[in-house]
Amino acid sequence: MSRINPQALGRASLEADPAATARRLQALRAYMEANVLGPDGFCCTSYSTCLGSIGPRERFFEGQLSHVGHHYDLHLNGRPLRIVVVGQEYGGTRTSISLQDRYEELHDGSGLASRYYADSDHPPRNPHMRGTTSALRVILGKGLGEEWDDEFVQATSGNRFHLFDAFALVNALLCSAHPIRGAQGRSSKTMRRNCVRHFAATIAILDPTLMILQGEGVQNWIAPVLGPMDDRTENLAEAHIAGSRVLVCRFSHPSARGVLRWGDRLDRAYLREVVEPTLRLAVASL
What we know:
Blueprint: H1 6-9, E1 14-16, H2 18-35, E2 37-38, E3 41-42, H3 47-51, E4 58-61, E5 67-68, E6 74-76, E7 79-81, E8 83-87, H4 99-113, H5 127-139, E9 152-154, E10 160-162, E11 168-171, E12 176-179, H6 189-206, E13 210-214, H7 216-221, H8 223-226, E14 230-231, E15 236-241, E16 244-251, H9 269-284
């Protein structure tokens, strides 16, 4: 396969199964419409308790669903590769974001209409999505880089698609709370406790083989879903969710401050010395 880095993956064979992904999306959409965001709007039964749990100087933003790429179901050298990146919450203040809305925002907007760094015709991605770009490049054998043309994956079956079509971005919370004049997440313990059931249902449907946890907070929030884990290294562990083996990579958030930051520049030490080797080990351990 011409676009896979032979130094990273050897003679890699990457296959995509968009039909399988379509079935997953249908199941996820059915769950969300029945339990979170349906045709008649936000319908989560925990709405009133979550809304009542935030402070008077905070605003509540409901129904911010996940991104699932249309080529999420992959096989790398015959082994299932389903990548889920887990964040804490949606960083913006939009409400009622459907699965399709989120796909268009992330794949079409951040993926196709933006670039790693800005150029004369395109805006830059934010540090979160730059870090996610780097992680996906490493997993899919691209190696670190900023070239947009090299962000496309060529499957052996002939399908060619962008990196952002090859993974799912699932936040632990499907609603968020922010200060009235600010963007910092201010979720409550009640929100985190109530939303874990939706996260568990999402993971059961997506059935990932590789999870990337972005931020220390989210690692604690979703611990009940992951259950006991067998540590391979400080940043890599193996979990079993509903009987399925999952490799779990635990990192700081790409936009973290100081030495833990890895999403703004390609020369960040945390990216080069922690994220990249951990992801390479995870891929080799699939």
